[in-house]
Amino acid sequence: MSKSDFTTGNIFEKLLGFMAPILGALILQTMYGAVDIMVVGWFGSQESISAVSTGSTFINVIVFILNGLAMGVTILMGRYIGEGRSHRLSETVGNGIALFAVLAVAMTVLLLIGAPAIAGFMNAPADAYDKTVTYIRICGGGIFFIIGYNLISSVFRGIGNSRLPLIFVGIACVINVFADLLLVAVLRMDVAGAAIATVVAQALSLFMSLAMCKRIALPFSLTLSQIRFTPEVKKIITLGLPIAFQELLTQVSFLFLVAFVNGMGSTPEIQLASSCGYGVANKLTSIVMLVPGALMQSMSSFIAQNVGAGKERRAQKAMGYGMLIGGAIGVFMTWAAFFYGQQLAAIFTDELAYQIKAAEYLQGFSMEAILTSVLFSFIGYYNGHNQTLWVLIQGVLQSFLVRLPMAYMMSRMFTDTLLYVGCAAPTATVFGIILNLGFYFYFTGKLEQKQIGYMA
What secondary structure does DSSP assign to 276-305, as a single string? Predict the structure, then answer.
């Protein structure tokens, strides 16, 4: 029985086995930014922490959005495998490569030219403005490698292989650590060194992935002539664009949050402490969000195969197992974030004021570790059913009805603490869970009616 066949076998074991490497890869990818913050915090200037935090936040927005679009490739490949139509995979991959090559060029131009405007939009502190621009431009110059690696990872996940991306990113993460130490600690290149290290590590990930594709047996073959646009690209965009747009809205809401936080503080000292403290906290919350993120990605592939094979009950059980797995891990992460935020922040900075601000935010944010595992299990279920438009709608409602208004009000009402700003995310997630639970009953009811109609 193939490990990449999710339509048979023990659901818990297969889901956990597929999810674990995805989670491992996400942890290592997050360490890219975490290592940048850590090394810059140890060997660079104080303003560099704010610059790397603000710049990497925007770069992550780009990556998250394009990863959402790449989910269209993953879901479509999973559906074809479940339906027994593996001959369609080559066309899907070829269209995906063509689409993301165009997007990589567009993102490179945007980041190189628009870096000053982006830093200004994100309200980067004056002392950190120039360094923020530098970080964005260097990462923008290497965005092709970042996008390419993540596309190949989505292809591997689409065929049910989550182990190889973990190996590639693990090697690249080690390279990033040594490059950071060399460029920042030894050569004193500060923010520029951290950005160059990140780009080099991602480039090596891409090259290793491409080399491995030639050495392993894949369920499809790909020639240069197949890297082109056909009507298949419309299916990728139809599936992936709502997910990407939902990611855009979510990440834009967090960009606004960065701007809100950068404007907080009754004195310049508190303003800088809030900005740097949030930057450190943001790296820690990224770790908290890894489990829900891995759940959503693995759930989408797992359920797409089962929907393609006509096994709806198995798909529903998989969603329940995902909530159980994520929630159990989330309890521990919530406890750590709430009670030990300052100790965790101390890993990244020895400035007491920054540690305190990070701990404030983490206390307000802490319940998100449990709540988002439930929410993202719902989203993975809907992605696997091609209900990506609903994923977009619920994301819009969460961001603009709850997260942004609450974060803005809290940043203005409580200017010298990040505690209440941190509460905006879990509050929005509770709202999202209520929305998705209601849609679940509506959607499964329609499925049952359709099945009865077929039987009749």
Answer: HHHHHHHHHHHHHTHHHHHHHHHHHHHHHH
CB atoms near residue 400 (< 10 Å): 14
Q: How far apart are CA 368 and CA 361, in angstroms?
A: 12
pLDDT of residue 242: 82
- Asked if 194 and 219 touch (Cβ cutoff 8 Å), the reply is no
CA gap 396, 349 in Å, rounded: 35
- To 5 degrees, how large is the angle CA 278–CA 122–CA 371? 45
Q: How far from the centroid of its chain's Cα atoms is residue 368's Cα? A: 15
Helix (H) or strand (E) holding 246: helix 232-262
Per-residue pLDDT reduced to its tens digit, 92-147 = 899 999 999 999 999 999 999 999 998 888 778 788 889 999 999 999 888 888 88
Q: For residue 259, what are the contacts with CB-CB under 8 A and spacing of at least 6?
A: 121, 122, 123
Q: How far apart are CA 291 and CA 278, in angstroms?
A: 21
Among 288, 263, 293, 248, CA closest to 421:
263
Q: How far apart are CA 79 and CA 379, in angstroms?
A: 17
Q: How far is CA 287 from CA 4, 239, 280, 436, in A?
A: 27, 27, 11, 24
**What is the token pair recorded at 241?**
């664009």
Q: How many CA atoms lie within 13 A of 246 on its CB side?
A: 24
303 vs 323: CA distance, rounded Å: 14
Quote the pTM value. 0.77
Phi-psi region of 9 (alpha: psi -120 to 50; beta: other; left: phi over 0): left
List, for residues 8-20, the tens digit of each pLDDT value. Answer: 888 888 888 888 8
Burial of 441 (0-12, 13-18, 19+ CB in 10 A): exposed
